[in-house]
Amino acid sequence: MRARFSLLSLLRAALIVLTAASSAVVLPRLGSVGPDLVLLVVVAGALLGGPAKGALLGLGAGWVVDLMPPGTPALGMAALTYAAAGVAAGLWHRDSGRSASLPALATLAAASTVAAVGILRDMTSGWPVPWAAAGWSIVLTTALGLAVVPLLIRAERGLVRRRMA
Questions:
Q1: Of 37, 46, 35, which is closest to residue 105 (Cα–Cα)?
Q2: Is the domain covering 7-161 a CATH 1.10.1760.20 domain?
Q3: Is residue 125 pLDDT above 70, yes or no?
Q4: Which of 85, 94, 110, 116 is 20 to 30 A from 149 (CA-CA)?
């Protein structure tokens, strides 16, 4: 069996690595709470491909986040979390029609999924739950998703239309 990689797959992978690196290096210098940049790439892919592709994209993105320093307390936790977020965003996939609120709702669902898994992890581990940080992360990710996710979707559709993907 021969694997086939499209330009779109390579660009998504590069974008995930770039956003994970900037989330690990740049965002902590700006403040303690910031938007989840990797999640925006997962949401855009899930909206275009549906829940199954969203889960696979989220799983791959989560592995990158798991391996990016400082990493996660349990290896694989981010991969499963982003896979669940990819499914949540992929449930908003529609074959026809373009809604302005669809990317925002899908981003809200995915960001809420990531925050809920983090809260559950903290509660079961006995760690203090950062309720305010989780809320702000959801708000900031959704707000940034309003602008970024439609741009990513438009760029991906343009690549497909030009048969470059």
A1: 46
A2: yes
A3: yes
A4: 116
